[in-house]
Amino acid sequence: MDSQQAQKLYDSGKEPVVAKLLEYDKKSTQLEEMLALLEKSLSTKSYELTLPEIPDEDMNPTVAALLNVIEAQQATMQKMYEGNQLAKDEIARLKKQNQKPKIKPKNRKKNNSTDKNGKRPGSKKISKTKDLEIDETNIIEPDVIPLDATFHSYRDFVVQDIILKKYNIKYRIKRYLAPDGSIIQGKVPAYLQGKHFGGDLICFCIYQHHHCGVTQPLLLEQLLEIGIQISSGHLSNILTENKKKYHEEKQRILNIGLKFSSYINVDDTGARHNGKNGYCTYLGNEEFSWFESTDSKSRINILTILRCEHTDYHINSQAIAYMKEGGLPKSKLEIMTASKGLLLIDDKSWFKFLEKNNIEKPRHVKIATEGALLGSIVTHGISNRLVLLSDDARQFAILIHALCWIHAERLLAKLSPLTDEAKADLKNVRSRIWKFYDKLKTYKGNPTPEAKAQLEAEFDEIFTTQTASPMVNDALKRLHKNKAELLLVLDRPEIPLHNNSAENAIREYVKKRKISGSTRSEKGRKCRDTFTTLKQTCRKQGITFWRFLNDRVFQLLSIPDLSVLIQQKFDDQSAEAENI
Questions:
Q1: Whole-angstrom Cα distance, residue 520 to residue 272?
Q2: Structure confidence by residue, pLDDT tens digits, 490-549
Q3: Residues whose CB is less than 8 angstroms from the CB of residue 456 and which lie 6 or more positions away in sequence, other chains included
Q4: Taking the mean position of all CA atoms in its chain, how far away is CA 334?
């Protein structure tokens, strides 16, 4: 009996479990003691048990089955206990009663060693103001100067400061009357676009809101305190209106990123909008970051994102192969095969085609739509060798899918085996996995066919290990089924072993969700995605977001389009690879 069978027995109720086990063997010397222990655990709130030691000669199928039942039952009770505790903690927090104690961090050992001059190691003074640009110089005289004193020298003392105050400008536009009666007049700077707020103020508002996470009410209060006369409506317009050029640059980042990347990290998280649940999807790698908020996180959603700005559906060989693998019925698949090469320009045309061919069941519509979207993606130049690295969220299992080792190992980390032997087995298995992980990192730097074969064999050896815990065995079995996705790095050494970069990037939305809750307008949601994309891509390209905003707002054109910078990086990498 495995752990799943044991769980089914346990879920059916206490008496059926006991009765079923009694049918196995009534002669075991340990059976009555084990049954009593199970009775006790089922009738009390305790979820921690200490099992008696069972001699090898008494470890018959009945006892092993009973151990499986107890372990499955204990795992269920542990989850219930932890969930209940979380609910209690949240209720206590809301009522401000019996909150968790604040545990002070451990004090790190201080390095009190000093050199012969009495300085700590690494405390060598480095001039921090040597290359500073000086904006103002003030000469300071002594309070009292003796009559016979002569000037000796200056001692410079540099102070860094910031000026944060209102700065109102009046443009006096000269107007001239031409002989023909027409009026000729000067023009205000083009970047103002006829608005009454200057470029530095616009940059400041966008930077504070989208980069520093300052909410609109707090930003409005800050501006009013500084002396800026602005309404909440005007502030909202600065943050969301007339941002077409930013949205277009964001889209070009995705187009170039997908065209030249060999892999992308992907992840999603909750992003409420207008009081309703929504999701934000992240795509990116070392060269770019890209975010899009939608109402769904299905596979159709991620395929639509990968299709970029295109709206078509294409039935080609890739689409048909996907539909066949997805289990589309033979009769429907024959319709798709007969329609190979068909290109439908938009959603309306696609769903009309499905209706015409009696493809109406939700599952069939889903598989066919996913396949046609995949066909469109490949048609528009995205390589079908593009790797998507995820945390095992199945909506991302398209094209070539790789798995994050950190998330995979968590499947074992969260287990709590019952016996000491099982705990020792789990510890040993996890240790072997992390040693194997280190070997994969070494392989990435120097891939060879011999090392590949050795690592594949070692993977099988680790993940087919039989331990004393059925739960651990089931987890290992599940991970072994994902061998191709976990060991994709052996064929594609350039891809990362983990998805931490995606986790870190999308944390931006988690923080915003905690501070602001959700966006309200469609323009607000779109601007949040756009400026988060631009900010994080600037960071990866070595450009400060403040400098980027100044360049775009004042139309300086000193910073190329970010998609151009990304393509240059990919071109440089390709040239370097060819020279090796």
A1: 9
A2: 999 999 999 999 999 999 888 888 887 788 899 999 999 999 999 999 999 999 999 999
A3: 487, 490
A4: 39
- The answer to whether the beta carbons of residues 407 and 391 sit under 8 Å apart is yes
Q: Please list the alpha-helical segments (H only) found in 241-341.
A: 244-260, 299-306, 317-326, 330-338
pLDDT of residue 49: 57
For residues 299 and 268, give the distance between their C-alpha atoms in angstroms, rounded to a whole number: 12
**Rounded-to-integer distance, Cα 453 and Cα 237, Å:** 60
DSSP string of 77-145, one letter each residue: HHHHHHHHHHHHHHHHHHHT-SPPP-PPPPPPPP-----TTSPPTT-----SSTTPPP--------S--
Q: What is the pLDDT of residues 460-479, one digit of tens each?
A: 999 999 988 888 999 999 99
Residue 450 and residue 437: Cα distance in Å, rounded? 17
DSSP state of 190: G
9 vs 3: CA distance, rounded Å: 10
Q: Can you spell out the DSSP letters for 359-412?
A: --SHHHHHHHHHHHHHHHHHHTT--TT-EEEESS-GGG-SSEEEE-HHHHHHHH
Ordered by start, the domain boundaries in the chain are: 3-79, 264-384, 405-490
Structure tokens belonging to residue 416: 């709590």
Reading phi first (left if > 0) and then psi (alpha if -120 to 50, else beta), residue 322 is in alpha
Q: What CA–CA distance (Å, rounded) separates 573 from 580?
A: 11
186-214: per-residue pLDDT in tens? Answer: 999 888 888 899 999 999 999 999 999 99
Under DSSP, the state recorded for 47 is -
Question: Which tokens sit at 124?
Answer: 């060598």
Structure tokens at 428: 């040993």
What are the residues whose beta carbons fall under 8 Å from the beta carbon of 409, sequence distance 6 or more? 430, 433, 434, 437
Report how far residue 472's alpha carbon sits from residue 469's, in angstroms, rounded to the nearest whole number.
5
